[in-house]
Amino acid sequence: MQTDVLDLESSGTYKFKVQARNSFGLSSYSNELELVIGFKPDKPSLPTTYVIDSNVVIEWLAPGDNGSPLTAYSILIVKHDSSFIEDKSLCDGSTAETIDTLKCTVPLSALTSTPFSLVFGDSVFAKVIAKNYYGESLESEPGNGAIIKLVPDSPINLRDNVEVTTA
Fold first, then answer.
1. Which residues 6+ apart lie within 8 Å of 119 measured at CB?
2. Does the residue 141 lie in any domain?
């Protein structure tokens, strides 16, 4: 039996059929089998985070799909203790909008609350994992880390916060 190593490329379509041989001759060919070759997606590049008004926007570039369309993303956001978690209620990487736009917008108020508990001056880092039919990519490195800058609340009573001096 002869076997050759095939150098298959992702997103390539390959057709196979076989024929048996014995001392009496060759059989007819089998039915043709067509295969589309695909692999897990490439590792995404660093996502970008930036603050607009009272939101943090997380954006990323689509990695190579390796022959199978990207079907979802997991977006992991840093917590105050430097661990990362996914919260689909804030950034659902399986929605068509998120898959198409490659971004999600998260309210700062959510990031300064449990379970994230980020505070003024903390950086918001995110990691992205791409998914296709064949599985999940490696997770990206954390992005650039937008800094949380909160607008102060309005003063409750101006009179109590004013120092009066006379000359």
1. 80, 112, 148
2. yes
